[in-house]
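Methods: example folding runs. The two proteins below were folded one after another, and each record is reproduced exactly as written to the output file, sequence line first and structure-token line second.
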Amino acid sequence: MLSVATTSQIKKLETEWISSCDAHWGQVLMELAGQQAAKIAYSLWLNKPEKVAVICGSGNNGGDGLVVARYLSLRKVPVSVSFVTAKADKSEHQMTSKEANVNKTIAKNLGIEMKLIEKASALDLKGVTLVIDALLGTGLDRQVDGLYKEVIERINELRLAKELIVLAIDVPSGVNTDTGQIMGAAIKADATGTFGYLKCGLLCHPAAELCGDLSLVDIGLPPLGERYPEIYLSTSDYIFSLIPERKANSNKGTYGTLLTIAGSTGMVGAAFLSSRSSLRSGAGLVLLGTAKSVLEHLPPGEVIYKPLPETDAQTIDEKAVTEVLELTKTASAVVIGPGLTTNPQTVKFVRQFLEQSMSKKDILPCLIDADALNSLAQFTEIMDNKPKPFVLTPHPKELSRLTGQTTAEIQADRIGSALNAAKKFGCIVVLKGAHSVVASYDGRVFVNPTGNASMAKAGAGDVLSGIIGGFLAQKLQPFVAAVVGTYLHGLAGEIASEELGMASVLANDISMNISGALDRINNKEASTFEETIFEWTI
């Protein structure tokens, strides 16, 4: 796993690190950052060895850019520096930190061409093939406007015309490094070299799409240590360490029994996809409790079917609670929700089941998905913030119903929204979507790197619920089961798309490739996203 830092965490760490070393240590960190970024820049320049333009703001990000310009110049790369400033007095441009001003003086003494940009149209990029974006760094908390916005838009226009390659220093200028939102305007980069630690915003859309190839640049920062929230990016080697071992002397009981409560007439596929995916994830036995009319539509196979009392609409009836609670006595975990519908009687069933499950001394681990989440949204008062072994797997609209936030508000801060919901309900929350977020009520968060657009299909969420449920049955802790299951689900989707293409993957294809995903994890093969995060070390 890789540590991920919030803006405040990285600033606090750098400040304390500089303070504990020496007042000049900030100069050293800027030097290391610029030197490493220059290596990335040089590797990109070799593809089109013409002019390089470093576009600098007035802050430390601009200082990093000046170091990059210096190292490129020393390698005989034709490079120029353009300063963009919002200050009224431009007669003698000054950087805002002593470290950045020192690097400006050095660059000037080396004879590197420097100019001040007073309007975007004056940004001359003729003959330039590589632009270094060193305008705005981390911590941006206001909308980009004026000259900065105009310069960003001009660079993007030229890049779109395929005249430029753009390398962003630390972050693409104009993105919020905590939420990933665009603050008025933002650079679209072909590559980004981020310093010290991954930033939350670079793993959240839309900023994740603006980074291009994301590189992690080591500048010698110490460990983040204890912090809140504690955020990580899942990696294949870490997931490998969590997957239950398959022992030679074992049987189906060794790997647990999962009770899945799912399905209704017309929604049979959801129940089947979820149940079958649990078995493919390693669960020893899966019981599927479903409306009795559904049974005739289910294929024979390894899943054991349990008919339940049904409504006139052939959904699970409120009267099924007694039978389902009896079934839980032999189960090690429960999945509830896929294909249930929100028939009023079914909603009452969900409420009674959850209330009675939570009233027990030893609460059975339970994953709540799909229509069980939509039912829960009607009576969230039953969920206090006391920790419980429940996993909620909402997409943004379902989380909106649970919390009262709009989907736009949720998407504007996915990590914060998932974490707040986890604390509110005392559960694990898996906020589905590109780079799904797994959040715990205790402040731990994992961002999932696997998956792609091929998985934007009906039924994909049912497969995810089955996979996580399978690991719950194998007695992984709910947070661990959610982290492992989310990673495995995305990786299975990636494998399916390799064979079928991005448009043609079906939910069943994801389920069928769980075994291939497990093989890759066991072989410690990195996911597609992990492979792009090449680490430049000092």
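Second run, written to the same file directly after the first:
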Amino acid sequence: MNTSMSWIKKYVPDLDVTPKEYCDAMTLSGTKVEGCTLLDADLDKIVVGLVKTCMPHPDSDHLHVCTVDVGTGEDLQIVCGAPNVAAGQKVPVVLEGGNVAGSHDGKKTEGGIAIKAGKLRGIESHGMICSIEELGSSREFYPEAPEGGIYIFPEDTKIGADAIEELGLRDAVVEYEITSNRVDCYSVIGIAREAAATFNKTFLPPVFKATGNDEDVNSYVKVEVRDPDLCRRYCARVVKNVKIAPSPKWMQRCLASNGIRPINNIVDITNYVMEEYGQPMHSFDYDTVAGHTIIVRRAEDGEVFTTLDGQKRNMDHDVLMICDAEKEIGIAGIMGGENSMITDSVKNVLFEAACFDGTNIRLSSKRIGLQTDASGKFDKGIDPNVCIEAINRACELMEEFGAGEVVGGTVDVHGELPQPTVTPFEPDKINALLGTDIDPEEMIRIFEKEGLTYDKEKNAVTAPTWRQDLHRMCDYAEEVARFHGYDKIPTTLPSGEATPGGLQPDMAVNAVVRQVAEGNGFLQGYCYSFESPKVFDKLLIPENCSSRQAIRILNPLGEDFSIMRTLSLNGILTSLATNANRRNKSVRLYEMGNVYIPKQLPLTELPDERMKLTLGMYGDGDFFDLKGVVEMLLIRLGMKGKTEYLTDSPKPFLHPGRQASVVYEGKTIGFLGEVHPQVRKNYEIDERAYVCVMDMPSIYPLATFERKFVGIPKYPAMTRDISMVVPKNVTNAEIEAIIAQRGGKILESCVLFDIYEGAPILPGFKSMAYNLIFRHADKTLGEEEVGSAMKKILNGLQDKGITLR
């Protein structure tokens, strides 16, 4: 939200502060200022001058030698190259030692350009006659300025006057960061009200006078609202015999200071009221409205509508439309239609001021890809009671400018309107909440200067409907704090009982996951949730795979960001590829991010957002290193149950013989493996890469942080090493399962410490060696007990075709 200080002073006339003082105080009182632009920052010693004579330069075919009266009693000789300069004109003149805004080689000059006396082709020149661009503005905001020439003031402008003041550039434009709950501050009046309260000045809002002739507007136009849930109020007025003309200079300057280009009196009035009240308005050519009837209804699916900007927009039943008896003439709250636009030949105007549902406007704006100043205000949720004030203000300005004849009365269609909020006044609770000892009378004074009222008999504070953020006493405590002064609140110790803090269970699991990943050399990355459909082809996903059923984005940034990801691999592989292409020799990355799985398409409910831990690496490390990270993770999460690594669910993007699903207690919780060579080629990764994806929602209920203390063993252990010849198709997991089952309770651990293939081991076999530790909790083991356990183990292994070496 932007406002100029000159516009604020229209409602707070005794506001006499510098822009810096204003910005600092407004920020401290809760209306945060993001920035302030001084319109006269690079302008100095510029006055209004009268060109008395203008003669061609004797040594140039485009320069002129002018004699200029600047009100000092001594005429200046100035050489000017503007094609439109002529005697009798009143123009802006920069005196010697002055400064103008300008550019050099097409770039903005920092600090402006200093003007010095000099000679142009042998003729002395003492000053400079300026164009509007050299004064830091443009013809967009000063449409009366000639193109490519100097600016010319009206004839009644005083010679020697401050040219910057005459142009309205002795001003500052302030940019605010308004929170969405302060809808009233999305207007100049709202900001002015805050400024008056901040500086303890008088706030003078616009005062209306009755407008309209003796006719009844209801005989001119009918309004029917078919969807009252999306349109809480619709006001309409008619102005006859309209005269299109430029709006007054003061209005043009106000709009220009807010970055709005002046167009004509009709358009400027609606824009002015929108900025003044925060209530968007729209004007229709009354004679193009079929049946002189306004119908507010939902659009039809597949309907195509051409907006004022000449673009065709595709509608659906969730978009609210403004229609006449035959056709659509506007998209409610967003933009009017080309078929009812105001042209220079307009004779009669229909004004609209309405309150549309903010959520619907926001979603409709996104859906059709059109955001405007009006939609930006509507989607915050404006006050329906402002509609009638705004439309009456517009009609008042029409009469004031002589722009047309206002028809009497207003068409006002609405349901139940919001009422002022009444809240019990509890100063003790406010002081207890703030840690202050502010007098109740001081609190009441703060409320009243904000426009709130206090009822002494009921001991209650009433907030007007435009203060939609005030509902309970804690809200009023904030008002007291910000206008009493946050800097005046003393430091106090908190009171009440302390409550233990802590992370939610899933957040605690996520924290451990990050610790394990980073402890193993993985760096965290953040990847886009938006992806391209081409990702599925790069990952070799089959055409009939459910992973291709992705949610499409209505208004994507482009085709490369058009769907919500259903797999988390693309981001990590892209990051690995970037590092590989930059010749980083060994890289380990991880990401904690969601994938979005639709329950059905098209969407009828929110998708399943599943958190995934994605690990990716190349360089130092292989499949077994990555498997070790997974095992460490499960141990840290207290998951000591049976974990299997199965190859029964192959992934197309992983190497066929170097991948596995992670199955815990019979439930699949993730997968890991080497990236398929073709996928590596698609991502331009030249060396072997490995990835792992763990489904965190499957892990959360299985993780536990309960730990049981086990004392140091009292009795000695007995160890056995066995080396075996094993068929190549028998896995380590199968061998460990047999050893664990046959070893019984006295088996403490089983560790594979060697694996070998080659001579003298026969083809089709491999040598595997394990270290077994036996220990009894209550006694010293004997040779017989360990020998019996070993015999059972060896018998079980023989069933798998395994023999001792």
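Comment on the second run: DSSP finds 20 helices and 41 strands in the chain.
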